[in-house]
Design brief:
This protein is α/β, with parallel strands linked by helices. It has helices at 7-10, 14-35, 37-45, 67-72, 111-127, 147-158, 173-178, 187-199, 221-231, 345-352, 394-406, 410-417, and strands at 91-96, 106-110, 135-138, 161-163, 182-185, 211-214, 234-239, 247-249, 256-257, 263-269, 274-275, 282-288, 303-309, 311-313, 325-326, 330-331, 335-338, 341-344, 361-371, 378-386, 421-428, 445-447. A 9-stranded mixed sheet has the order 4-3-5-6-7-8-9-15-14, sandwiched between helices. A 5-stranded antiparallel sheet has the order 11-10-12-13-16, with no helix packed on it. Strand 8 and strand 9 form a beta hairpin. The chain is globular and about 70 Å long.
């Protein structure tokens, strides 16, 4: 079992942990009232008395904001950045979110913010078995998003060596010469890297790699398990955002640990306009927690991240950590709706990566939803890439994908059985999918109705 980066915090008794959280909630809301133009106005407009917010449970009584709120309070909508929560000369770096769901949101980070971000990732890495002897190729962007730099700062805290590639398209001599013990990247980047290695006569299972870390986007557990088989190592899951929601799996593989002393998470049902209980799915609502005496560049209270998960447990994990564990989050903005029934990219991925399919498929896929012949009907076209189209057992692949998809929800099955939803397939050769002609991260589920 892996060790701890900060054992006294990570294994803290829950009553003591709640006491620390509540202390930081009080400091954070006071700091917000004194330093954040947005929250100063927000408290006043919503008749919120700052002194009445004493515990993390009091946050459940406050309104929820979202990414649109941030965009409405930054240029060009306003003259200044109203979420900026410290004087400008305290800001170390300025970042933007990816902008996949709208105009990029601006995020300002002080050096203390960076150290808190690095602490979150350092805890994750140590929980996954990383130590000062590791050499890690980081295949995440070193641009305006914070992920790669945060991992690099975390490496400094732990003492391992970083190979800052930024992309998984690095020359294979990097693996041969520097013998990295781990690679951080997305599922598909790591699968493509393995395919390149095999083409050059290199067996990923015989390489220096001892573990993989995936993140950057939601994925099906089936694709993660396939990646693990291809490389012959454990694959750990992490989740993070520019706004600060870093969390990850430990070596027990029993959910992603939330660093509860540095970020508070509640789950919210937007349709019911209420918070949900443990075990129920809801949208991650983030509150930054600032240790007393520290400062923060962009402070967020009750911020809806657009990502959905559920709390697995708040009990002590078998790894010894007491911080809560959650399911792998997924983005609600990636849902498409067919007569009100949601279908997510991860649902398609789960179906494609059915274990028996992977004897024939590479794992690459794309899906498009079109209008059907009748006004209310829809056609879902799923294209999968075959290792060898002439030898692919296309009938069995189609059947397994269809049955898995129909198991997503009773609503999807009903739509299929009554003829409202039609599913058709295209079995493509390697490199023949549309996504191979698109630069940047491809959308794998596209609504073309």
């Amino acid at each position: 079992m892996a060790g701890y980066f900060r054992e006294e915090i990570e294994c803290m008794d829950r009553d003591a942990l709640y006491s620390m959280i509540d202390e930081r909630v009080r400091y954070t809301v006071t700091y917000a009232a004194e330093n954040s133009p947005f929250y100063r106005s927000w408290f006043r407009k919503n008749n919120i008395k700052v002194s009445s917010i004493r515990t993390h449970e009091d946050l459940l009584e406050l309104p929820v904001i979202n990414g649109g709120t941030i965009r409405e309070h930054q240029p060009p909508e306003t003259d200044g950045f109203e979420f900026l929560s410290t004087p400008g000369d305290n800001i170390f770096t300025i970042h933007e979110t990816s902008g996949t769901s709208g105009v990029p949101k601006s995020v300002f980070l002080t050096w203390q913010d960076w150290m808190r971000y690095a602490e979150k990732y350092a805890r994750i890495f140590v929980s996954q078995g990383f130590s000062g002897t590791d050499r890690v190729a980081v295949c995440a962007s070193y641009g305006m998003n914070v992920g790669a730099n945060t991992m690099t700062y975390a490496a400094h805290e732990i003492g391992f060596t970083v190979i800052p590639e930024g992309k998984c398209t690095f020359p294979l001599r990097v693996i041969e010469c520097y013998r990295p013990t781990a690679i951080i990247g997305s599922v598909f980047k790591l699968l493509r890297l393995a395919a390149r290695m095999k083409k050059e006569g290199m067996d990923p299972k015989e390489s220096s790699i001892e573990r993989l870390v995936v993140g950057g986007e939601s994925f099906a557990d089936e694709s993660r398990q396939y990646l693990s088989r291809v490389w012959g190592v454990d694959v750990f899951n992490t989740y993070g955002s520019t706004e600060g929601t870093m969390c990850g799996e430990c070596s027990a593989f029993s959910g992603l640990h939330i660093p509860e002393d540095l970020m508070h998470m509640d789950l919210y049902d937007r349709s019911k306009k209420e918070f949900v209980a443990d075990g129920e799915e809801g949208r991650i609502v983030l509150t930054t927690l600032i240790p007393e005496g520290e400062i923060c560049g962009t402070l967020l209270i009750n911020y809806d991240t657009d990502d959905i998960t559920r709390v697995i447990s708040r009990d002590r994990c078998s790894c010894g950590r007491t911080h809560m564990r959650i399911d792998n989050p997924w983005r609600e903005t990636e849902n498409i709706y067919i007569q009100g029934a949601p279908l997510n990219r991860v649902d398609i991925e789960k179906a494609v990566f059915h274990p028996e399919n992977m004897n024939d498929l590479t794992g690459e896929y794309e899906a498009f939803l079109y209008s059907g012949d009748e006004e209310s009907s829809a056609v879902l076209r799923i294209s999968v890439e075959c290792e060898n189209p002439k030898e692919c057992d296309s009938g069995a692949v189609k059947e397994r994908i269809t049955e898995t998809l129909l198991g997503v929800s009773p609503e999807i099955r009903d739509l299929y059985e009554d003829g409202t939803l039609h599913i058709i397939f295209h079995m493509a050769g390697q490199g023949k999918l549309e996504l191979h002609t698109i630069r940047g991260r491809p959308k794998r589920l596209v609504d073309r109705r």
